[in-house]
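RECORD TYPE: inverse folding
INPUT: C-alpha cells
STRUCTURE:
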C-alpha cells in the first residue's frame, strides 16, 4: 500500500513532490495539499504518514520525526517570506500575521525583537496585503503571495535575509515531518526527488524557458518541467521560477541546515515561545534508497 504525504501548495514544494505525481498509480507515495497551518492535522487524524510542514511543528510537538537529507531551506534572501510595513520598521506597533503560516510568523517576531527591539501587538489575518495594511502597521506574507505582493512604496524585510544576517546560519522553512509512520523506507522515498533532479538546486536550466539548455540530459528536461509547472502554478515568469530554484531554494538538509534549525529552536525559547523545547528524531533512509 502506498504512503500518503501532505505538502504545501507552493512553488517551493514542486521539486519535492512532482516525481510522485508523474509516477501516477505506480508511485509509492500519494500527495495531498494544504496550507502549512493545516498540515499537522493530517498527521493527527492519520490521513498522512508524513507532511512537508513548517519546521516549527517539529520543534513544538513531542515525538515528531524528521526525514533526513531533504528540506525547504534558504541561506540568505528567500524572496517568498516577507514583512511589509507602511511605517518605518522601527515604528511598527501592530503586525498582521499570515493565517496560513506557522514558522514565518514567529520568525518575524524574533527578528523584530532581537534586531529592532520591537514587540508589536499581533493578530492572524487572511493573507491580503492591502487589507492587512489598512488595519495594521505591518504584515507577514508567505509563499506565492509573499513572493508576488507589490512592496512599492513600503518598507520590506526579506525574513530569510534578516535571519542569516542576524545569526550567520541558513534557515529551514519546512521539512518532511511525521510520527511512527515516518519509517526509514518512507524517508528513502522522500529523497527520490533529489536524485530525480540531479541535485536540482545546483543544476540550472538557464535564464527562462526561452534560454533553457537543449542538452540531451534527463536532469535538464526534468528541471525544465519543474520550472514550467512552477510558472503555471504561480503566474511567475519562468525566469523567476528558474532563479528561485537555482539561487534561492536549498533542498538538501545537511549539517549546516540542521544547525540552523537548532538555532531557531534556541531563539524561540529565548524569546518566550516556551512550547518549542523539542527537536525531532532524524530518520535516515533504508539503503539502497527504494
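DESIGNED SEQUENCE:
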Amino acid at each position: 500500500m502506498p504512503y500518503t504525504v501532505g505538502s504545501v501548495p507552493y512553488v517551493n514544494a514542486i521539486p519535492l513532490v512532482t516525481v510522485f505525481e508523474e509516477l501516477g498509480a505506480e508511485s509509492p507515495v500519494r500527495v495531498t495539499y494544504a496550507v502549512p497551518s493545516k498540515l499537522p492535522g493530517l498527521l493527527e487524524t492519520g490521513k498522512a504518514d508524513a507532511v512537508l510542514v513548517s519546521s516549527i511543528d517539529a520543534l513544538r510537538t513531542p515525538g515528531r520525526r524528521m526525514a533526513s537529507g531533504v528540506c525547504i531551506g534558504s541561506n540568505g534572501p528567500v524572496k517568498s517570506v516577507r514583512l511589509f510595513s507602511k511605517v518605518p520598521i522601527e515604528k511598527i506597533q501592530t503586525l498582521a500575521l499570515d493565517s496560513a503560516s506557522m514558522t514565518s510568523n514567529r520568525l518575524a517576531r524574533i527578528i523584530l525583537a532581537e534586531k529592532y527591539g520591537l514587540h508589536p501587538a499581533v493578530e492572524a489575518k487572511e493573507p491580503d496585503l492591502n487589507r492587512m495594511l489598512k488595519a495594521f502597521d505591518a504584515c507577514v506574507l508567505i509563499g506565492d503571495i509573499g513572493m508576488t505582493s507589490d512592496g512599492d512604496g513600503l518598507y520590506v524585510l526579506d525574513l530569510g535575509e534578516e535571519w542569516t544576517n542576524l545569526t550567520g546560519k541558513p534557515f529551514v522553512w519546512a521539512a518532511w515531518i511525521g510520527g511512527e509512520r515516518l519509517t526509514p523506507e518512507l524517508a528513502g522515498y522522500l529523497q527520490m526527488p533529489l536524485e530525480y533532479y540531479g541535485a536540482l538546486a545546483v543544476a540550472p536550466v538557464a535564464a527562462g524557458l526561452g534560454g533553457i539548455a537543449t542538452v540531451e540530459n534527463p536532469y535538464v528536461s526534468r528541471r525544465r518541467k519543474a520550472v514550467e509547472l512552477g510558472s503555471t502554478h504561480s503566474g511567475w515568469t519562468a525566469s523567476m521560477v528558474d532563479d528561485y530554484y537555482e539561487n534561492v531554494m536549498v533542498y538538501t538538509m545537511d549539517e549546516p541546515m540542521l544547525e540552523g534549525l537548532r538555532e531557531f529552536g534556541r531563539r524561540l525559547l529565548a524569546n518566550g515561545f516556551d512550547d518549542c523545547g523539542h527537536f525531532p528524531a532524524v530518520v535516515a533512509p533504508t539503503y539502497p534508497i527504494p
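NOTES: The chain has twelve helices and twelve strands.
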